[in-house]
Amino acid sequence: MEWIIQIVSGAVGGNIAGKAMQNFSLGPILNSLVGIIGGGLGGQILSMVGLGGVGDIASSPDIANILTDVAGSGVGGAVLLVVVGLIKKAFSK
Description:
With 93 residues, this protein is an all-alpha fold. It is 76% helix and 0% strand.
């Protein structure tokens, strides 16, 4: 369950960041792929820090854990998209 939340939230976060910041957008497919990777990383980082419900969600799928995973994965997807967009811009100059 937690992986599905991270994948979907990351993809959504990557696409929202791509729409909001057109200069970092990689296109819908790459925005989604980068967002999925960033969402997985964001969810895992929150879990390691103890803020996410990734480890607890299978045993206790309460709304707070799910919302924390959605937020962390969405932000992780958006942040990774911006990082990849910056790297792409640096190499294209």
